[in-house]
Amino acid sequence: MHKYTLLYIVLWLGSIAPLYAKPKPTIPDSLQLLHFDVNGVPFDMQRVEGGVFVMGGTREQHRERISTDLPTHTVALDAYYIASTEVTQALWKAVMPEWEFFEELYLPHFPISYISWNDCQAFVRRLDSITGMPFRLPTEAEWEYAARGGNRSKGFRFAGGNIVENVSWGLSNAGFRTHEVGKKQPNEVGLYDMTGNVSEWCSDWYAPYHFGTVPNPQGPTTGKEKIIRGSSYSNCQDNSYLSHRYMAVPTEATSYCGMRLALTLPNEPTLQVKEEHELVKKIKIKNVRIKLVYVNAQEPYYISEEPINKRVWNKAMNLPNDVQWSQAVVDKTDSEWDQFLEACRRQSHEALEFASKEELQLAMELGFTQEPKIKKAKQRRWEKDTHSIQRHRRTAKKAQKWADLIGVQIKTTEDPTLLLYTKEDKNNQPRWIVIR
C-alpha cells in the first residue's frame, strides 16, 4: 500500500464521521433566555440546566460552619428557569396596581421589599393569570444551585465571585439601603444580586437537612417558618455566603426581603436520579472518629454505633486521657451533657443531637448499636452480658420446677439493657448521638 494511501483513508473517515455521529441534544437559543412583558414592564427568565450538586455548608463557603446548613448532602435537579434579577418595584406595581408602597419615592428599578411570603403567593397568582405561565417561587435547592452557578459553577463563595463588593450590595458598600437591580457582576449563569441587595423568599418550609441524594426536593408539607435565602444590604461579608439559611413566618414583611421568580416549562426531561442514602457517616471530635450508621425509619436518622465513651468525652471536654477510655459515660448532669453536645457540634461541624429512647430501641432491634460497657462493682460474670443472662434464665427455669416442690422461688437478674433504659434517674444512663 502506498505510504499516503492510509493517510487519505484516515482523513476521509474523519470527514464523514460527523455525518453518522449521534447528534447531542441541544437547547435552542430561543429557550436559553425567556423574555416577558407585563403591562410595559419587561423581565427575563434565565434557563438553568439540570444537574447534581452538593448543597449546604461546603468547605469553600465559610470556615465556621453552623448547624442550620449542615449536613452537606447531594441534590439532583431538573432544568428550570429563574429570573435574572429580583422582582422590581415596577414589575410588582404592574401586576399589583392597588399596592401601596411604604416609600414616598417610587423607585421602579429597585427591588421590591416589605412583602411577606403570603404577598408573594398573591403576586404569583396574579402574574399567572396575566401571562398564562406557571410562575412560582424557587425551591431552596433551586435557589442555591442557581446562585452557585448551576452546572457552570466555579466554586465561588458568593454569587459570581469571591470578592463580595464586586457582586453584591452589602453592609460594606450599600449605605444601608437597596440599589437598582442588575448593576453588579452577574454569576456564571447570568443572574444578578443573588448575593446582596435584598434577601429572597423560597417556597419551602424550613426543615433540617438530611444525608443522602435527594431529587428535586420540595421541603416538608407543613411548618412554622418559610425559607429565606441570599444576603441583603444589611449583611456583612461573613453572613453573605451562599449556603447560609434564614427563615421567617409567612406573614412577616421587612425592608431587607424581596423575591425572585422561578418557572418550569411542561415536558422538561428529567435526570432520573433516585433518592439514595449514605449508609455510614463518620464525624471527628478532635482526633477521635465516631461512626454513625443510617437507620431507615419513618423519619430516617444516623446513630452512633456505640454510646459516648470516656475517650470521646475527655477529648470534647479537653480533659486528660482516662485508662477506662472504652467505658460508657454515665452519672452526668443535664448541664454537663449539654456542654458536651455543644462542644461536639463545634468540633464536628454537624447538627448533632442525643438519641431518643425510641430511636435507640429501634437501632438496637436492628443490630446497629452495641451494648454499653459499664463497669459496676461486684458484678458477677453472668451479669455482664445479655447472652449469659439468657443462659442463666434457662437454667433457672428448669431448676424452678424442682424448687416449687419445696416452696423456693429462684430469682433471675434483669436484662441490663432493659434495666438501664427504664430507670427514672436518666443521668445514670449512657447516651448515643444522632444526626436527624
Identify the notable features of this structure and list them briefly.
436 residues, alpha+beta, paralog of FGE (formylglycine-generating enzyme), 2 domains, five-stranded antiparallel sheet, 10 helices, 24% helix, elongated
Kindly describe this structure.
The protein is of the alpha+beta class and 436 residues long. The chain folds into two domains: 235 residues, paralog of FGE (formylglycine-generating enzyme) (Alpha-Beta Complex); 113 residues, no CATH class. Helix content is 24%, strand content 17%. The chain has ten helices and 17 strands. Strands 1-2-5-12-6 form a five-stranded antiparallel beta sheet. A hairpin with a 2-residue loop joins β13 and β14. About 9% of the residues have low confidence.
